[in-house]
Design brief:
173 residues; alpha/beta; Rossmann fold; six-stranded parallel β-sheet; two-stranded antiparallel ribbon; 6 helices
Length: 173
């Protein structure tokens, strides 16, 4: 098994700067960006080309890179931040994007998965792209999906940046 970690970013900006501080502290990470993630990262002024990791982008509908999760190339998958849309797809088994495909393949291959959903509390403060805090009120369906995902075998749902750091250290070794 390789020492690599697959890190997927979805179309959410919640705590994105803090999340990239974590990825940047690791030297064994490949990033997987959904199309929505690329749009959001531009809004948050993250220069994708300067990120110090190999980057996989949305491309082929079949997402051939997912096969690397079956062959032991990755010792873990982290999805952070995970948008409500991606969490809903994880919970219902929809695999129609790069990120949802690697989530499915990692699960089928028993690769440990860590997910940091954006929807973890009924009221949350989040930093918007304008660098001003905004209040967010997740819908009950989004909170329910987060709870359902936490019940998946092989999936660890974290609900804070500190919990994410701890879980990453456990997987990164």
């Amino acid at each position: 098994m390789s020492g690599k970690i697959g890190w997927a970013v979805t179309g959410a900006g919640h705590l994105i700067k803090e999340i990239f501080k974590i990825t940047d502290s690791l030297d064994n990470v490949d990033l997987f960006l959904s199309r929505a993630a690329e749009e959001v990262l531009k809004m948050y002024k993250v220069d994708i080309e300067s990120l110090p990791h190999k980057i996989h982008r949305e491309g082929h509908a079949s997402a051939p890179v997912t096969g690397k999760f079956s062959t032991g190339h990755y010792k873990g998958l982290i999805v952070a931040p995970a948008s409500g849309n991606s969490v809903a797809k994880f919970v219902t088994g929809i695999a129609d994007t790069l990120v949802t495909n690697i989530f499915a393949q990692a699960g089928k291959s028993r690769v440990p998965i860590i997910v940091f959903p954006t929807d973890v509390a009924p009221e949350m403060e989040s930093m918007g792209p304008s660098k001003k805090p905004v209040m967010v009120y997740p819908r009950s369906v989004d909170l329910d999906n987060t709870d359902k995902l936490a019940g998946f075998k092989g999936v660890t749902v974290v609900r804070s940046i500190d919990d994410l750091k701890t879980a990453v250290q456990e997987v990164a070794g």
